[in-house]
Write a structure and sequence with these properties.
The complex is a heterotrimer of chains A (331), B (285) and C (440). By secondary structure, chain A is mostly helical. Chain A is 61% helix and 2% strand. The longest helix of chain A has 26 residues. Chain C contains 14 helices and 17 strands. Chain C has 440 residues and is of the alpha/beta class. In chain C, helix 5 links the parallel strand 10 and strand 11. In chain C, 28% of the residues lie in helices and 20% in strands. The chains are: A mainly alpha (331), B alpha+beta (285), C alpha/beta (440).
Chain lengths: 331, 285, 440
């Protein structure tokens, strides 16, 4: 009897695509590399230090909470905490004091993620919650942007406003758009990232490269980024046509601030975005509208973080109302 | 100065009064009459909301109890006879006492009595495993031990014994709500009458195969040899589909069947050790 | 752009190793175990007893209800006993055990290799013959075919669709059959067309079988009203409703039957069995089975007598590799893992797949990251991730609201899930819960 081999029985299917949560998370990390390189080139050692601190503290907090509070199995290897760390760092200025980024990490991981039960259960994007928490708590530090210093690795940073802040202040002062535009960086600087801003948001090209990589790897679909960008372009174009002196052109809206970073990396976060393609389009539309509304009519120069968080809250509702069409269902 | 205070006071007071009037009429209009006794009965119930009575939650049971003309058929297994008679007294109704029951696991196919012939790789869920194949030990009637009964029990009365891999019922905690009976995909669990000191005699097997096949997979399977039927003085044992069943109403706990069972598939619990056996073993030595 | 079904679907590695192996006839085993339940519906009722002598093709069990069919002896020999053994379904079933002697066929069977093209029977007679020959759907669902050919009152069949898709990875039985028996299959199609009185038939073949598409392209010219439809490679295109959508563009209503859009779908294996039954009077007692696996030394396509222990097939394909951990009857997506290799081949066994230990273990399940891959992979338009949570909690109303019963159990959701969640297992549990509730 003992010589008889024991076979394994399990329900079908017996094969698997080989995809795993870990592979997806590392795929996102690879996609973040170009933006990271540009930020190190632009902001030097500070960017490296901030990113490193954010990643280490996010992973550490996740490990501690998982080990001592939730008492579950170790989850830090799945890479999601690393992504939260990187994205949080990418959303703050490189001049931010290190202890603040640690506090931000604690809020991102502890409050926004682990208090809901960990990966997959959080309703809001953890990195954005961390960022918004920092923005509310330390507005001064969070809105002082070092000017990029282009390869001077250890140079002392000179702070200055972001392009969006330039516009907001300009309009507040009553300057005309042409006057404002004189201070404004040109398109090639915007594309390459030679502008002031958060660590990861400056270079449009680097972010688009990352986005294309994720599309190729099928980590994201085109629906969310495209619908966000299209909505922003459309709405800002309408406003721009209404009054060119008050509202800047759609191109600037898309290339400045965190729109691309948000549209490609933050809004597409699987956990906090809708399931179906139609739902994703609506979600992206919502983000676009709220972003433009905050940017043009709100108090803050930048609105995409708030927009994404607000739409995150709507995701369960979107999932409920945009169910996939059943095969053979009557239209 | 006076005006700045006076105007808000007047406005707010007016709003307050208006709201009160509106609320009063709304409350009158939408008043739901509810028998206050339902609340009282609900307070007397255990509040486990287990569904053991057959109604969704204790409140519904209380409502049915209060509204019913004949409460004879109602029973809350968690509260038991004592509580039922208290409630009945409170409402001026009569209830019939019911025998206290306890869940019994009718399978003894542990790792020693059966052999693992295959290994299962899938969700640790009895209902999924049972729908996939006959079971690791080849018995398509026995317990697979993935603990659906454990997860459904709200009173922590069932645990899976780590040694045997079979569920064990803690009689004191079991309220006979019947949830485990319901969920068990192989209908192994039965609610049986409890006796003094938790004495129980039951057939710990559900195998309806013919003797040879049953015995091949499990050393303690019932092989329907009818020896127990013959020896039972109370006609409490019947064999249907190659399986013996002891009627707990008729059984007088005489333990005669336990001795004759060739596969020890009949189990006795909490009985004192047999006196007769001592001299027998002494002679052997 | 090739036709396919629009919603969901996946493309697992094809691994059709045995595609170039011609069909070999497997030697007759010493003992066969013929299960009395090889079809969907009521198990057949044995009509032989111990000691009876049987020939090849002798009926040994008769249809015991409307959804039931006949079963025939696959060998000549003596009935040994009616026993209960663990079958490929994973459960013990009654089997008729026959000890084999030398091959003797029933006199009525035409054993000559001649190709017969003329159809002499009418619709009624064909259906009777199909029932008498015990023919069932040979793609795996094993639904008795004579019921399928009985078009219900008030419905009109307009198209016969032949399933030559074989979308399951590894399997090549249908592919080989199409290559070697193309003309017979076309006659079989003519027969079924007569039975259900439709004028046109479509053979759906996936594009990964260009040789079969080409061959049929030429063979169908000899016949009237048969066309070949090359299809894009996508799993589960062999699903009845998916195939109808891919070939005709019509969508079978949810909860409906193919006949609701005038379609009748048959597998090529079934069509060939119909040819043999009608033209050669040969009941269904053998079928083609692929034996394959990544680490199997010889990939084979065998013509096997029903009731042959699967072990025999494995032995004939170079033996069981040392590190085999799982034996699957059928394909890797929908096949059943079988506990013991002694289980017999049945009418529905399309392949035997041996899986090495490295690939057979499931990965640990992680939290759902709500990536939506299961939603986009589902060809029915369900949301497996949420159905799983409802099934775990036993919420019947929600399960029904999310249409759990519409699942065709293709397994695409479990296949794509990056968190390795056993979605399909729990969807099946959900169906189980709903059925239990319905019974009450």
């Amino acid at each position: 009897m003992n010589s008889v081999k024991k076979f394994t029985v399990s329900p079908s299917p017996h094969i698997h695509s080989g995809e795993s949560v870990q592979k997806i998370m590392y795929g996102v990390l690879y996609a973040l590399i170009p933006a990271f390189l540009v930020s190190v080139y632009a902001f030097g050692f500070d960017a490296l230090l901030i990113t490193f601190t954010a990643v280490v503290s996010c992973v550490l907090f996740e490990w501690l909470i998982q080990r001592y509070v939730l008492r579950g199995k170790n989850t830090i290897l799945d890479g999601s905490a690393v992504i939260t760390g990187v994205l949080l760092a990418f959303n703050v200025p490189s001049s931010l004091p290190l202890w603040m980024i640690v506090v931000g990490s604690l809020v991102a991981i502890g409050v926004a993620k682990m208090s809901f039960g960990g990966l997959g259960k959080n309703p809001f994007n953890p990195a954005l919650v961390g960022r918004v928490f920092l923005l509310m708590s330390f507005p001064a530090h969070m809105t002082q942007w070092p000017k990029p210093m282009m390869g001077k690795f250890f140079a002392d940073a000179v702070t200055g406003p972001t392009p969006l802040a330039v516009i907001k202040e300009g309009i507040a002062k009553g300057n005309s758009m042409t006057e404002i535009m004189a201070e404004f960086p040109n398109i090639s600087d915007l594309l390459l990232g030679f502008i002031g801003g958060s660590i990861g948001e400056i270079s449009a090209i680097a972010i688009i490269i990352g986005g294309i990589y994720m599309l190729y790897k099928k980590i994201i679909t085109w629906h969310i980024p495209v619908s966000i960008l299209a909505t922003i372009a459309l709405f800002s174009a309408v406003l721009h046509l209404v009054d060119m002196n008050v509202y800047i052109s759609p191109l600037y809206h898309i290339l400045t601030g965190g729109v691309l970073l948000g549209a490609v990396f933050m809004a597409t976060d699987m956990v906090t975005s809708p399931m179906t393609n139609k739902g994703m389009l609506l979600y992206g539309f919502g983000i676009g509208v709220i972003t433009i509304a905050i940017r043009t009519f709100g108090a803050y120069p930048e609105g995409i973080s708030f927009a994404i968080l607000i739409m995150n809250a709507c995701v369960p509702l979107i999932n409920k109302s945009f169910r996939p069409k059943m095969f053979g269902e009557k239209k | 100065m006076n005006e700045t205070i006076l105007i808000p006071v007047i406005v707010l007071s007016t709003i307050g009064v208006l709201a009160a009037v509106v609320l009063y009429f709304v409350a009158q209009k939408f008043k739901v009459f509810e028998d206050h006794r339902i609340d009282e009965v609900e307070a007397m119930l255990p509040g486990a909301n287990c569904g053991g009575c057959g109604y969704p939650g204790c409140r519904k049971f209380a409502q049915v109890f209060v509204e019913s003309d004949n409460a004879e058929s109602l029973f809350c297994p968690v509260g038991g006879n004592e509580m039922m008679s208290q409630i009945a007294e409170h409402l001026g109704k009569t209830v019939s006492a019911q025998a206290k029951k306890v869940a019994v696991i009718r399978c003894n196919g542990d790792c020693e009595n059966t052999r693992k012939l295959t290994s299962y790789d899938g969700p640790q869920n009895c209902r999924i495993a049972v729908a996939t194949f006959e079971g690791e030990n080849g018995c398509s009637f026995g317990c697979v031990g993935y603990g659906d009964c454990v997860s459904v029990c709200e009173f922590d009365a069932i645990i899976i014994d780590e040694k045997t891999g079979l569920p064990v019922v803690t009689t004191d905690k079991c309220t006979a709500c019947g949830k485990c009976v319901e969920i068990c995909p192989r209908d192994i669990i039965e609610l049986r009458k409890t006796n003094k000191k938790d004495l129980k005699i039951y057939v710990a097997c559900m195998n309806k195969d013919r003797g040879a096949r049953a015995k091949k997979n499990c050393d303690v399977a019932c092989i329907a040899c009818t020896k127990c039927v013959q020896v039972c003085p109370h006609d409490a044992i019947v064999i249907t589909d190659n399986l013996a069943y002891i009627d707990d109403e008729k059984c007088k706990l005489c333990r005669k069947c336990v001795v004759v069972c060739p596969t020890t598939s009949i189990i006795e619990t909490n009985f004192p050790p047999r006196k007769v056996q001592e001299p027998v073993s002494a002679v052997k030595e | 752009m090739l036709h396919t079904f629009p919603k969901g679907g996946i493309h697992p590695p094809e691994n059709k190793f045995a595609a170039s192996q011609p069909i070999e006839v497997l030697s007759v085993p010493d003992i066969v175990y013929i299960p009395i339940s090889q079809h969907l519906g009521v198990p057949a009722k044995p009509i032989v007893k111990r000691g009876d002598a049987v020939k090849i093709g002798t009926p040994i069990a008769e249809a015991a209800g409307f959804v039931s069919t006949f079963i025939h002896s696959s060998v000549a020999g003596v009935v040994d006993k009616i026993d209960k053994i663990t079958c490929a379904s994973g459960f013990p079933q009654d089997v008729i055990v026959i000890k084999t002697s030398e091959d003797v066929w029933e006199d009525s069977i035409d054993t000559s290799p001649d190709f017969v093209k003329e159809i002499t029977l009418n619709s009624e007679e064909i259906r009777a013959r199909v029932l008498q020959s015990g023919i069932v759907g040979m793609g795996g669902a094993t639904f008795p075919s004579h019921i399928k050919y009985q078009v219900p009152e008030g419905k009109q069949a307009t198209a016969l669709i032949i399933n030559g898709v074989e979308c399951e990875p590894y399997l090549t039985a249908d592919h080989r059959l199409m290559l070697e028996k193309a003309r017979e299959i076309c006659v079989g199609i003519e027969i079924i067309k007569t039975a259900i009185s439709v004028s046109h038939a479509y053979i759906g073949i996936e594009n990964n079988k260009p040789d079969a598409i080409e061959l049929f392209g030429t063979v169908v010219k000899e016949f009237q009203g048969i066309s070949v439809v090359p299809l894009q490679v996508k799993y589960p295109q062999g699903g009845e409703k998916q195939l109808i959508k891919a070939v005709t563009g019509k969508e079978v209503p949810a909860g409906g039957l193919p006949i609701d859009v005038g379609a009748i779908v048959n597998n090529v294996g079934t069509v060939y069995a119909v040819y043999e039954a009608v033209q050669k009077n040969k009941p269904l007692y053998e079928r083609i089975v692929t034996v394959t696996g990544k680490h199997v030394t010889e990939h084979k396509n065998f013509l096997v007598r029903i009731g042959t222990p699967i072990q025999n097939l494995i032995d004939a394909a170079g033996g069981m590799p040392e590190d085999t951990e799982k034996i699957i009857s059928g394909g890797p997506m929908m096949g059943k893992a079988i506990p013991f290799p002694q289980a017999p081949v049945t009418k529905g066994t399309s392949g035997i797949l041996l899986v090495p230990s490295l690939e057979s273990q499931r990965q640990n399940m992680e939290s759902c990251i709500r990536c939506g891959k299961c939603v986009s992979a589902c060809c029915v338009g369900l949301e497996p991730y949420i159905i799983m949570t409802f099934a775990e909690r036993g919420l019947v109303d929600e399960l029904l609201d999310y249409q759990v019963m519409q699942c065709i159990e293709c397994g695409s959701c479990s296949y794509v899930c990056p968190a390795h969640r056993p979605l399909l297992d729990f969807i099946r549990l959900g169906k189980q819960i709903v059925r239990k509730q319905d019974k009450k």
